[in-house]
Design brief:
Blueprint lengths: L5 H25 L5 H6 L8 H9 L3 H7 L1 H23 L11 H17 L17
Helix pairs in contact: 1-5, 3-4, 4-5
Length: about 140
Amino acid sequence: MKKYPAAARVAVGVGIPAVIAAGVLFFIKAGSPPCFIHAMTGLYCPGCGAGRAIDALMHLRILDALQYNLLFTLALPVGILFLLKWYISVVGGREIMKRVRITDRGAWICLAVILSFLVLRNIPAAPFKYLSPNDFL
C-alpha cells in the first residue's frame, strides 16, 4: 500500500467532503445542467440524464433515477464504493478491502457496454426508446 504524506491526507480528508457538499448544494440550488452533446447533435450521450438521476436519488426517487439514466444509476454504487475505499485508504492509512485491478479486457468490456448504451438509447423504437431520459415507461 502506498503511504501518503500527512498534508495529502489532510487535503483529501477535507477536500473530498467539501467537493461533495458543494455538488449537493449546486444540484439543490441550480438543478441539473443541460447536456451540451444533446443540444448540439440531438443524440443522447451515455451521460444524458445523469444530473437528473442524481437529483432524483437525492430525493429518494430511485425509479425516476433509473428512468433518467439506467447505466449511470446502476454504476453509481460501484463508483461510490471505489471512492470510499480510496478515501479511507488515503485518510486512514490502511486498506479496508482487497485491491481490485481492472484488466485490459475489463476496460474493453466497460467501453463496449457504454458504447452499446449510447447506440441503444438513440434507437427511437420500443423497447429502446425507454432508455432515453425523456421517455418513461
